[in-house]
Here is the input.
Amino acid sequence: MGESGARAMSAGAGAASLGSIVMVWGNHTVHESSAAAARPDVESAEWLRELADRGPRREAALARLHGVLVRVARREVARRGPRLAISGPELDDLAYQAAADALLAITGKLGQFRGESRFTTWACKFVILEVSTKLGRHFWRHPAVPLAAEDWDRLPGRFGFDPAQEAEWRDLLAAVRRAVDDELTPRQRQVFVAIVLNDVPLDALAIELASNRNAIYKMLFDARRKLRAALAANGYLGHDIAGHS
Amino acid sequence: MNGWPELDRFLRTDPRDVGCAQAMDMLHVYVDLVVAGTPVEERYPGIAAHLRACGPCGEDFEGLLAAVRGEAH
Here is the structure.
């Protein structure tokens, strides 16, 4: 089973015992109601019956589910394809691999389906996450920029600064760089540089750092908060009055 | 408002943001609600905030939504 499938299912198992999601990031506590386990709809119940069966009925259901997963994976890689340095048969192979890994994960985790959604939506989540993970791994086969690179000249373009107005943003750019050096931990700095300066996809970075999407996102989240506070304190950005976007 | 909207937007964080793990845990439920026309941003504001801010999770959301709609036709 792929890492993304494991991510989806470990989280799903955790939610099963909770009435609400409680996240604490920084000083904020967030409560979010989760869907309660429910009786599956008729079509979903039929999928579950067939997949739990033995013999030809199960085989037919597996073949049908595999067909759905392949179709979804191929459409998904085609949807993302134009933004990737990958195309043709390689992209098709990736879709088939994602579908195969997703099918394996789904059949191993059928008992964790709680009926909160349609079965096929739950199943398709596996293949979408597999596609993400495989594209993240693929990035390192032909990385555009080495992970250790640190080209600050890319920052103005990244944030749409007009070269003709360099006199206006030169100070801001220096302040961003100073805040990155002074305010961020070494790990936050590494994540900021990789994602913002080097344009490394977050999933690819998670793989390279032997981490996971959630941990990398949290590191970048904290880095963004620190940098914004530093820039606001020095008058480069307005203070965040509302507390959220 | 300031003169650096893209930088400002990137650095602005939403305290309701639940993070990737929670958002992905609920993604299938969230997508089915979207397809059903439920006002999902009101019901799950923390997930909505996360999907707006996190590129990879937003991409997975768009992908799953497209998959469900594609399979329905």
Q: What stands out?
A: The beta strands of chain A are 20-25, 28-33. Chain A has two domains: 3-139, 152-233. The first strand of chain A starts at residue 20 and ends at 25. Chain A is about 60% helix and 5% strand.
